[in-house]
């Protein structure tokens, strides 16, 4: 009977400790969320992408846009640039098309200041047309197959967004366009 009593007391202590940790975590998340900027509307201020921390330089790249123009990292120096990385087979990527266009329009970026690298499967022509029809009026688009072109940054997945300053260094990166907002507000 004594063993059973000790087991019940230990179990009750573990349950109480678990409840305490859960309440502390909920408070911490609420505090972090409330410290977001007005533009990010309560979105957690997530860290930069592991592969593209702030200060990462733009790597050498050369790519042909959908309009046939060749762009390089050299012409990006002196210009603040937003880079977007999409894959037409990624469902989450499609959800970020409109937010990217809204950010570009809201913050006064020209199409030359926003470059979208769109990876596609040659069989997915309809998906590719959806991406280009939404992006092309507002964004410079580079369409390529996986590993077909060298990109300015190599985020580990899709979607990915990087804001680079005029010196060619990443200022902020994230998996949603809204993750760039705190830097866009201060620029």
Structure description:
The chain is α/β, with parallel strands linked by helices and 187 residues long. It folds into 2 domains: 1-35; 62-186, Glutaredoxin. 35% of the residues lie in helices and 18% in strands. The protein has helices at residues 2-34, 91-95, 97-106, 125-135, 181-186; strands spanning 62-64, 70-72, 81-87, 114-119, 140-144, 160-164, 170-174. It has a 5-stranded mixed sheet, with helices on one face. A two-stranded antiparallel sheet has the order 1-2. Strand 4 (114-119), helix 4 (125-135) and strand 5 (140-144) form a beta-alpha-beta unit. It is elongated, with a radius of gyration of 22 Å. The termini are far apart.
Secondary-structure topology with pairs:
Blueprint: H1 2-34, E1 62-64, E2 70-72, E3 81-87, H2 91-95, H3 97-106, E4 114-119, H4 125-135, E5 140-144, E6 160-164, E7 170-174, H5 181-186
Parallel strand pairs: 3-4, 4-5
Antiparallel strand pairs: 1-2, 3-6, 6-7
Radius of gyration equals 22 Å
Q: State the helical fraction.
A: 25-40%
First CA to last CA: what distance?
Answer: 69 Å
The total beta strand count reads: 7
Please work out how many helical segments DSSP would assign. Answer: 5
Q: List low-pLDDT spans.
A: 34-44
Give me the CATH fold name of the largest domain. Answer: Glutaredoxin
The CATH architecture of the largest domain can be given as 3-Layer(aba) Sandwich
Sheet with the most strands: spatial strand order? 5-4-3-6-7
CATH superfamily of the largest domain: Glutaredoxin
Tell me about the biggest sheet?
A: 5 strands, mixed
Strand content: 15-25%
């Amino acid at each position: 009977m004594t063993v059973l009593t000790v087991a019940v007391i230990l179990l009750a202590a573990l349950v109480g400790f678990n409840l305490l940790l859960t309440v502390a975590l909920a408070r911490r998340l609420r505090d972090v969320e409330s410290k977001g900027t007005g533009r990010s509307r309560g979105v957690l201020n997530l860290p930069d992408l592991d592969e593209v921390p702030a200060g990462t330089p733009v790597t050498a790249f050369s790519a042909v846009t959908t309009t046939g123009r060749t762009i390089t990292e050299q012409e990006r120096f002196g210009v603040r640039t937003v880079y977007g990385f999409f894959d037409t087979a990624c469902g989450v990527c499609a959800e970020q098309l409109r937010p990217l266009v809204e950010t570009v329009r809201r913050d006064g970026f020209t199409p030359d200041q926003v470059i979208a690298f769109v990876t596609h499967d040659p069989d997915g022509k309809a998906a590719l047309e959806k991406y280009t029809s939404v992006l092309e009026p507002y964004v410079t688009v580079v369409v390529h197959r996986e590993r077909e072109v060298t990109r300015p940054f190599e985020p580990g997945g899709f979607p990915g967004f990087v804001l680079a300053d005029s010196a060619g260094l990443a200022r902020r990166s994230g998996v949603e366009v809204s993750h760039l907002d705190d830097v866009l507000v201060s620029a």
